[in-house]
Amino acid sequence: MVIGAGVGGLAAALELTKAGHKVSLFEAGPVLGGQVRTFEVGGGRIESFYHHLFRSDTDAIELIEQLGLGDDLEWIDSTVALQVGERRYPFVSALDLLRFGAVSLLTRVRLGLAALWLRRLKAWQRYEGQRASDWIRSRTGREGYERVWGPLLRAKFGDHAEEVSMVWFWGKVHLRFASRPGGPLAREQLGYLRGSFGRLVDAMVEAVQATGATAEVASPVRRVLVEDGRVTGVAVGFGVPGGGEDDGPERIVPCDAVIATIPSDAFRRMVPDLEAGYAALLEGVQYQWATVLALALARPLSETYWLTLTDDDCPFVVAVEQTNFVSPQRYGGQHIVYLSNYCDPGAPIIEEEAEQTLERYLPYIRRINPDFNRSWVRGVWLFRDRAGQPIVHERYHETIAPHRTPIEGLYLANTTQIYPEDRGQNYSIRMGRRVARLALADAADGAGQADAADTASAGTR
Ligand SMILES: Cc1cc2nc3c(=O)[nH]c(=O)nc-3n(C[C@H](O)[C@H](O)[C@H](O)COP(=O)(O)OP(=O)(O)OC[C@H]3O[C@@H](n4cnc5c(N)ncnc54)[C@H](O)[C@@H]3O)c2cc1C
After folding, report:
1. Ligand 1 contact via 59 beta carbon (within 6 Å)
2. Which atom of ligand 1 is nearest to the CA of 4?
3. Whole-angstrom Cα distance, residue 81 to residue 319?
4. Residue 296 Cα, ligand 1 centroid: separation in angstroms?
5. Torsions phi, psi for 55 (to 5 deg)
6. What is the DSSP-derived secondary structure letter of residue 4?
7. Does residue 255 surpass a pLDDT of 90?
8. Torsion-angle region of 453 (φ positive above 0: left; ψ -120 to 50: alpha; else: beta)
9. Which one of 8, 20, 38, 149 is most buried, counting C-beta atoms within 10 A?
10. Mutate to test the pocket of ligand 1, among 271, 425, 433 (most ligand atoms within 8 A of CB)
């Protein structure tokens, strides 16, 4: 059985069905896909949270090909820029760094050398226990941190930016450069699935269902049932959580193994009788909410796909203009912009309606384009995910829960276990498959062999 139908849960289910197992997949939300869920705009389908692939995302690329979608995976030149006050600085090629007039020439050179160093370095383990903020300041000076990389860390981790592990930062820079097969001076290309990554989700669901497996939405698992230290089944509710049926009737579904791909705190609540050490690892996890205000506009906002905003007062940190990546014709001629931020649970946006957030964002949208007018807005949506980004602090490596839990037959495969890379579709797919293989090997009484496979593999813990 698999709990959670994001790409991680679907990949696990696919692997189990390939081995001939009967799989039931339960998803709490109203749709399948998790963080890769989509919506319709102007007759086209698009992700609720912006998505692209890097060339280094080999597991995702391979799966797309295996599912017959390879011809629709497009590699597109990306346009990246940094906004400082009213000015926008393109960062399309490494040479743009030398033209980045917002910092001194010395800082530009230091930034370039630091990036080249991280690109070449493979032994990331040396950075465990170190903070990215300390490393960046020591290599690029105060200016390099405050004006360039500090804002990028704050973009993901908000008030926790100072604590972020150097390993996380290494992964970000190293893999980003790997997306430039022509070397660091080449232009970056990003991958996009024509018709949205929702098609990958659909293809995975179809492949799973073709084997007779079931995938049910609005079916939140409430408890994992355990007897004599091993899994015996799950209790599943009816209806989307928060929809007023949280304590209502439930059904018991027996099974002999469970792979949970849900956030750590939800998993902790679902399994009350966990051994204290493992429970403490789950309880120690901190997530940032991911929030995205998506706008459909009558006109383009900028000329950039990925625009990072460095001003401290700006309430969103990245503006991702999808239609500077693919054509607006895909969305009925409308221009789609995501205004994104990651924040703590107490932030105002957690309780707001989309229109309220838009109202608050208006003056800052005008910083990107002074001509912007409210009348350009044809549609507005607010998407949130409470487990958007685990906070990867400097001692993170000591706190990652193993996939195999102390309860026999119970496994965890969620985004907190992706390490040293940043979370992404690729790594959830890789992890889902790997944990399914671990469960299969355990079931075949090959625990020793599975242990070796689990610990030898980089990418997830
Ligand atoms: C803003 C944003 C932008 C991103 N951009 C990119 C990108 O450009 N490229 C990229 O590759 N990746 C990107 N990602 C990351 C990527 O989407 C995720 O890493 C990946 O989709 C996670 O998949 P998952 O299956 O591990 O988890 P999830 O997608 O979170 O799936 C977990 C599922 O479990 C369900 N669940 C929770 N509790 C229960 C319960 N009790 N019972 C049943 N089901 C339950 C949830 O509803 C959810 O559907 C982005 C993510 C965000 C938030």
Report:
1. no
2. 34
3. 10
4. 23
5. -60, -25
6. -
7. yes
8. alpha
9. 8
10. 425
DSSP state of 400: P
pLDDT reported for residue 366: 96
Encoded tokens for 392: 């990867």
Residue 9 CA, ligand 1 centroid: distance in Å: 10
The tens digit of pLDDT for each residue in 284-315 reads 999 999 999 999 999 999 999 999 998 888 99
Angstrom CA distances, 247 to 5, 240, 242, 448, stand at 22, 12, 10, 41
For every residue of 84-132, DSSP letters joined together read: ETTEEEE-SSTHHHHT-TTS-HHHHHHHHHHHHHHHH---GGGGTT-BH
Q: Which residue has the tokens 């039931």?
A: 24
List phi, psi (to 5°) of 399: -120, 10
Name the region of 89 (left: φ>0; alpha: ψ -120 to 50; beta: rest): beta
Q: Report residue 167 as tokens.
A: 């390993």
Q: From CA 81, how far away is CA 95, in angstroms rounded?
A: 13
**How far is 55 from 35, CA to CA, in rounded Å?**
20
Nearest to 51 by CA among 198, 206, 202: 198
